[in-house]
Structures are given as structure tokens and as C-alpha cells.
Amino acid sequence: QRLYVGHWNGSIFPNCSFLYGTNTFKIWHPRGPHQIEVWTYTLVP
Predict the structure, then answer these.
(1) Distance from first CA to last CA of the chain, Å, rounded?
(2) Please, is 18 exposed, middle or buried when counting C-beta atoms within 10 Å of its C-beta (0-12, 13-18, 19+)?
(3) What secondary structure letter does DSSP report for 17?
């Protein structure tokens, strides 16, 4: 059995995340009691 370690994620702030394996940066915006809007950016080297 092989362990896949290609994706790492981490929260920088409570509403900001970075996904290392895909170079994706996400910002989470609360819009209401049961709603969240997510902005996703991809970092291109």
C-alpha cells in the first residue's frame, strides 16, 4: 500500500487556506448564517 503525499493544506488565517499540491489559494467569505462564498486562485510559477 502506497501513501500519497502530493497534497498538503494549511490555514493561514481563519478564512484563508493554501493547498500545496495544486498551488491553490482559497479565501472563505461568510455570507449568512448558513452560507459561505469561496474565492479560489491558482498560483502559476
Answers:
(1) 32
(2) middle
(3) E
The residue extents of the domains of the chain are 9-42
Q: Is residue 36 a contact partner of residue 28, using CB atoms and an 8 Å limit? A: yes
Give, for all 45 residues of the chain, the pLDDT tens digit. 555 556 566 777 788 888 877 788 899 999 999 999 999 999 887
pTM, to two decimals: 0.63
C-alpha distances out from residue 43 to 21, 29, 31, Å: 11, 20, 25
